[in-house]
């Protein structure tokens, strides 16, 4: 071996070592960069920043914002109009990515969040539609609190932002909507309560200061947005024609509750037009309602490139600059993506928007970041600075995900002797269906990476010996293997069929065209049930409802459960319910219609109320009186609950001023504002309903007490609507008193044809379960 060869070899090794060390250094630098949160006013690195007014935490936010805006050039200001805000190094302000998502757990859908070796996943709760089915407001808020804690932990290691564009509070108006799964359902009261609780869970900082935010939530998509891509109708070009009445009593209430009651930090305007105007360019909807009437303390953001959409797809303006100008002047503060910051300068130069309007927009954005502590220096020295990887995917958080799924699961059918199954009696369990081994399907859309998955098959197999047959290779189920599935069913003590959908059938930009189980799933279900020798449990995994009349009427199918998209612990929760470790208490948050309904109702018809002369049946349980497969609120339990009315008035008399016209003439209704609506808490226009609720069965269980009202038939009033709900947990033979405080002007009012709230005078009918109570409102 020659010395020259050794020298060459040593040089080569030296070069390799140098490259390897450089690689390690690069990885180390990336890791260090990732482990640091993004923030402004880092006075440790740059002490001179302490002299800047906007870095002075002793000043009020308004003064700090004014100071910051005054220091920026026009070009620098424009850099803060887009979701990837461009920092200003001379002022110690870094780039900031506004787009993070937290629909049912921290998500990496938005470009502001990602998972890495430090934090590989976050707790993935059930998709919103299933959580809403729990009708448990405290659960809604508890989930929000966990999500915000995990979000802050990820921010502290540089993996997430502080602004999360969730929740989706649109009304699930049409059963075909692909994004209905993201919403709390079809009812404005439920959607409003969900919105407020989840927003509070995300935002409320420890210590209770309303000017501080744990993270910033965003209620979307404002407004009347519930068509994505149906036949030839697409959200980018859809004009939602909505009358004033439906706008006021169906589409707007969840957003109003977000802002007024939840103090949400942001509202997102949608892609669609409403009555011929893009929502992101409508000053009445943005400046007029959100900021003017509701007093938003925060910023208004567009859905991603909505401004570009109304220029490019809707041809609403002649130039990009005009599109930017009218959106900013309408009240838009931030544009998701780059269109606004790319064309704002040309808009200013063209004279269609001035710098003062840009100042106003970025001031709202900066004020939000200041409430989050972004301009307060090192976050690790602040309230949530101690959070980190140890606070993500904790055992407690994962157990909450399991419990949330359990609470939401809805039992729709249960023949005598079917569920719960006895683990000791079932020696062989057949688990069949395309969703039996579902993992990512269980977490729906807008998800992140979960802590871990437990599939339905895994959950069931933890309790009893289980044998699996897919029956179909996927949910499309074009070529089912009925023979193998039926043979397994025939040889097993019980069968669990896990059917339904996934994101290839319903999701953003994909609406359904019918309400049937996909492909040949119905045939597979029917034939397996026919062959089975024991109980057959049909589990439906989906966001929307189905026409499963065939299964409802099939005596061989002994039980039906809807499990939504149950999150990372879905398999455990399903098994808990099937084997009786948890007594089901979820209730449907949306109507399940027959197929005939969608065959005569265009998805693009936004009208909520029926039009009988034209054969239009109306929408949701509030206005649709036709046949249903399952109704809003439907539920079954392994026990029974009885209701008894303790207290409710028969007559409520409103006191009117002597000059009020309804004192001298007969009125059907009067405005739901004025002196007669004051002091509801002191009994002026309010009253209390008290009910005794008893668990009359032999096992403990939870129960949702619904208080509905049927108002007088004036102003196209609803058939009935939900006033409130309370979740109670009772042991066997235990009873409790449930109280509802009813404000006549707020809760018993209806909306008239021009969108004004009116108190309907005359006979109202309150219902709780089978109980009915008549109430008369007079003046």
From TrEMBL:
Source species of the chain: Camelina sativa (False flax)
Keywords: Glycosidase, Hydrolase, Signal
Alphabetized InterPro entries for the sequence: BXL, Fn3-like, GH, Glyco_hydro_3_C, Glyco_hydro_3_C_sf, Glyco_hydro_3_N, Glyco_hydro_3_N_sf, Ig-like_fold
Official protein name in the record: Beta-D-xylosidase 3-like
Domain of life: Eukaryota
Gene for this chain: LOC104734970
Domain annotation Fibronectin type III-like: ranges: 703-772
Keyword Magnesium: no
Signal peptide as annotated in the record: 1-33
């Amino acid at each position: 071996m020659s010395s020259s060869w050794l020298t060459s070899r040593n040089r080569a090794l030296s070069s390799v070592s140098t490259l390897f060390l450089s690689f390690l250094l690069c990885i180390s630098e990336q890791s260090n960069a990732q482990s640091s949160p993004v923030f402004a006013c880092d006075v440790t690195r740059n002490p001179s920043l302490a002299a800047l007014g906007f870095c002075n935490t002793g000043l009020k936010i308004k003064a700090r914002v004014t100071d910051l805006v005054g220091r920026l050039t026009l070009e620098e200001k424009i850099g803060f109009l887009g979701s990837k805000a461009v920092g200003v190094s001379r002022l110690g302000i870094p780039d900031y990515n506004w787009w993070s998502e937290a629909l049912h757990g921290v998500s990496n859908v938005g470009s502001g969040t990602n998972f890495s070796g430090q934090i590989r996943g976050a707790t993935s709760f059930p998709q919103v539609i299933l959580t809403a089915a729990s009708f448990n407001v405290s659960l809604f808020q508890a989930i929000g609190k966990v999500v915000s804690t995990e979000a802050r932990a990820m921010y502290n290691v540089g993996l997430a932002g502080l602004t999360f564009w969730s929740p989706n509070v649109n009304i699930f108006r049409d059963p075909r909507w692909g994004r209905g799964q993201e919403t709390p359902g079809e009812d404005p009261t439920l959607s409003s309560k969900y919105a407020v609780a989840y927003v509070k869970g995300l935002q409320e900082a420890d210590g209770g200061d309303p000017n501080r935010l744990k993270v910033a939530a965003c209620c979307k998509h404002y407004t009347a947005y519930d068509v994505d891509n149906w036949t030839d109708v697409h959200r980018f070009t859809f004009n939602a024609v909505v009358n004033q009445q439906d706008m006021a009593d169906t589409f707007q209430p969840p957003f109003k509750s977000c802002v007024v009651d939840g103090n949400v930090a942001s509202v997102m305007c949608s892609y669609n037009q409403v009555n011929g105007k893009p929502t992101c360019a409508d000053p009445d909807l943005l400046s007029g309602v959100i900021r003017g009437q509701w007093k938003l303390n925060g910023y208004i953001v567009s859905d991603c490139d909505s401004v570009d959409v109304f220029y490019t797809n809707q041809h609403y303006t002649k130039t990009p600059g005009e599109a930017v100008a009218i959106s900013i002047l309408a009240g838009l503060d931030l544009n998701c993506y780059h269109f606004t910051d790319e064309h704002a300068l040309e808009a200013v130069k063209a004279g269609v928007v001035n710098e003062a309007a840009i100042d106003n927009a970025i001031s709202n954005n900066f004020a939000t970041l200041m409430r989050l502590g972004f301009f307060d220096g090192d976050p690790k020295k602040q309230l949530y600075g101690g959070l980190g990887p140890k606070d993500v995917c904790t055992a407690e958080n994962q157990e909450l995900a399991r419990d949330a799924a359990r609470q939401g699961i809805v039992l729709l059918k249960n023949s005598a002797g079917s569920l719960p199954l006895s683990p000791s009696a079932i020696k062989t369990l057949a688990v069949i269906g395309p969703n039996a081994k579902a993992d990512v399907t269980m977490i729906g859309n807008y998800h992140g990476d979960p802590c871990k998955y437990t599939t339905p098959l895994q959950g069931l197999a933890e309790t009893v010996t289980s044998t699996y047959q897919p029956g179909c290779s996927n949910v499309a189920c074009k070529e089912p293997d009925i023979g193998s599935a039926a043979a397994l069913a025939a040889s097993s003590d019980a069968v669990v069929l896990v059917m339904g959908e996934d994101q290839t059938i319903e999701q953003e930009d994909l609406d359904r065209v019918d309400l049937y189980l996909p492909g040949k799933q119905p045939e597979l279900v029917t034939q397996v049930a026919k062959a089975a020798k024991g109980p057959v449990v049909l589990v439906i995994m989906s966001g929307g409802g189905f026409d499963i009349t065939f299964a409802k009427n099939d005596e061989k199918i002994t039980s039906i459960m809807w499990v939504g998209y149950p999150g990372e612990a879905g398999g455990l929760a399903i098994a808990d319910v099937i084997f009786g470790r948890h007594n089901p208490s979820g209730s449907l948050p949306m109507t399940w219609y027959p197929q005939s309904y969608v065959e005569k109702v265009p998805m693009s018809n936004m009208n909520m109320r029926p039009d009988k002369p034209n054969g239009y049946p109306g929408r949701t349980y509030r206005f649709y009186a036709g046949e249903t497969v399952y109704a809003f609120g439907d539920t079954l339990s392994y026990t029974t609950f009885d209701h008894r009315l303790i207290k409710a008035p028969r007559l409520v008399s409103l006191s009117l001023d002597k000059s009020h016209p309804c004192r001298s003439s007969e009125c059907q209704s009067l405005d739901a504002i004025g002196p007669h609506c004051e002091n509801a808490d002191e009994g002026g226009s309010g009253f209390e309903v008290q009910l005794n609720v008893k668990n009359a069965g032999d096992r403990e269980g939870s129960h949702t007490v619904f208080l509905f009202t049927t108002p007088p038939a004036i102003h196209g009033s609803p058939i009935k609507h939900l006033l409130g709900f309370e979740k109670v947990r009772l042991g066997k033979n235990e009873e409790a008193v449930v109280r509802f405080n009813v404000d006549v002007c707020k809760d018993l009012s209806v909306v008239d044809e021009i969108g004004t709230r009116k108190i309907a005078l005359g006979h109202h009918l309150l219902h709780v379960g089978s109980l009915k109570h008549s109430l008369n409102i007079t003046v």
